[in-house]
Amino acid sequence: MHIIGIGTDITECLRIANMIERHGELFICRVYTPQEIEYCSTRKAATQHYAGRWAAKEAVLKAIGTGWQRGISWRDVEVVNLSSGAPTIELHAGAREVADSQGIARVHISISHARSHAIAYAIAEGE
Known about the structure:
By secondary structure, this protein is of the alpha+beta class. The chain has a single domain, classed as CATH 3.90.470.20. Helix content is 43%, strand content 32%. The protein has helices at residues 13-31, 34-41, 46-63, 93-101, and strands at residues 2-12, 77-81, 87-91, 104-113, 117-126. β2 and β3 form a beta hairpin. The longest helix has 19 residues, at 13-31. The model has no long low-confidence stretch (mean pLDDT 93). Its cofactor is Mg(2+). Keywords: Cytoplasm, Fatty acid biosynthesis, Fatty acid metabolism, Lipid biosynthesis, Lipid metabolism, Magnesium, Metal-binding, Transferase. Mg(2+) binds at residues 9, 58. Pfam families: ACPS (PF01648). Belongs to the P-Pant transferase superfamily. AcpS family.
């Protein structure tokens, strides 16, 4: 295995809170998958968890080297937690196609958040 790309993103939790307040379900359903919504909405600090997933999605697209182009949507990058609580990345549709075309076998993710900010690091790994 070898590293194909890395990405990082930091997001203000207040920015995500404002988007949720301003656009509500429209924003949430456009950016997050049903599984992500279920996870975040049941957490004590839901906004921090939504912000962490936002940062993770941004970091992943930086790691695979595309940004928000080539037919990739927000929900094509999904953060799924293992039973241990560790976050993992599942790529769908356009994001999966791009990753496959670049020989990316797996994307590792680390997410952290505090009251004001969330940060994520992603590493795209090839075979």
